[in-house]
Amino acid sequence: MGQQASLPKLVVLVVEDEPLLRMMAVDLVEDAGFDAVEARSADEAVAILEARTDICVVFTDVDMPGSMDGLKLAASIRDRWPPIEIIITSGHQSMREDMIPARTKFFAKPYDTLKVQDMLHQMALH
Amino acid sequence: MPNPIPISPTSRISAIKASGLLSRSGSMSQFNLITEHVRTALSVPVAIISIVDEDRQVFAGHCGLPSPWDSRGETPLTHSFCQHVVESAAPLVVNDANSHKLVHENHAIADLGVVAYLGVPISLPTGELVGALAAIDTKERVWTPHEQRFLETLAKVVEREIAVGISERKYRSMFEEMQEGWYVASAIRDADSKLVDIRFEEINPAFERLTGLPPDRVVGARLSDLVPTAMGDMIPAYDEVLTTGNTQVYANKEVALGRWYENRIRKLDGDRIASIFTDVTERKDAEELQGVLNKEMSHRLKNTLAMVQAIASQTLRPVEDRHYVLAFEKRLHTLASAHDILFRTNWQSASLQTVIEASLESVGMAERVNVAGPAVELGPRAALSASLLIHELATNAVKHGSLSNDTGIVTVEWVSVGQSDEESLSLTWRESGGPAIDEPTSKGFGSKLIRMGMVGTGGVEVRYERTGLVVTMSGQLTHLKEQ
User: Fold this and answer.
1) What pTM did the predictor assign?
2) In chain A, what residues touch B336 (CB-CB under 8 Å)?
């Protein structure tokens, strides 16, 4: 994906408990020209966000073990790190608008790799 | 008089008991009026309608009886002349009881002062003799044939009245014994004659069993007083029935009572409704559980498809030609979105229009494709293959056909042809405004998919016309709707 070389290397945090799906998401992020950081749960994601300041997009699953799911994680990010963009994905076919925070995009699983990559690029431009 | 049917005493007694004539409620007042009429017309002090039971006679109607018999409403058979009318199945004419061999020892002479008696038989609609209509005098009297005919005619009226009572009782007992709740209610309207409430007029015992609300709280009460939470659901339903006169079936969850009820509401005259209702809570709970299970199944299936996608993308990572990997991913998404559409109807059916639009959506060309046809529901199998098929056609059009430039369009149209079982669907995919195309030489998976048709058995015609690709496919509607 050479056309992405001109963009600065932004960092995307991938939050997914299923290793295979996480692997695919990381590939998707890297193929789009970003750096990927992995978290296996929402709790781990929060720990990473507290430790690093360079995350610009969080790409998270909904159903995950731990003290919070992806929806709670998204709400907490919108609250504590307002500038971070959020993409949510889930096996549920749709999400009601009031279930997800503002400036949050939803993709049903299995998602369209190209469409998610497009969304990452759009978010990176902001 | 019809010839009385010879009937054993026991079956006669059970018929009387079943008729309700021995109970002292019912249409008594009507019978009293008839005896009143006898008394006036024949100038007698006493007239009775006597129902002859095993060991007593019960007065279904009477007037002029001395105390205490008038309030007791019955006498032992030792005091009954009427039993002889039933026994002989014929009128009994007694001018002077004291000298009549059949009744001269009857206690009615001393205790009720009966001297002259004229009684005619009364039968049930089913033929059993039940008693007599009788005129009684306290002094000797010579009854005329004219008076006897008068009484016999009036006995017909009594019999008619009994028949009506029995029929009413039959229907009433049906309402009282049935498992379904039943109520009649009258409309309450505001100044603009808008329906604002209803008032319960009558309910059956099952009403209390099903709702736990006792009759003394319900009858006369407004729905808004009784179950205010039901107003939002029920008032519009009642209004529709009262306005259109159509019977309406309506299931509402009564939050206060915690149950689901299905109401069959009918319009009655006088701005009233009648409703029969059943408790469908178990069915509703099962449906709800089914919905939860379906949702969970769907969720798992989508996760599994995501895993398939992940395995494929990892496995195919070394493949240089990404085109094939993307094609696979797109087909997987098409399958997933067809699943979504089916999921909405609990995997029953999917509208052809919705299936086509979802497939076009995934290719991103929906605005350049005109989709038009009558409403058709596809079964799950046809919905899945139709979505894959339309996806292939659209992908193809984007790569080589009319959607590969900026101006070409596609028209998707379908019609149903033939009748009933033979009815079939004919769908046409017509491209125009695209670049000139030649029939491709290679037959890839995509074109194989297209040639399989909507039910996997062909029926597909592919033509490369000057204006562009035209694909016609047809399938029998019964196959397309198969589960």
Assistant:
1) 0.60
2) 108-110
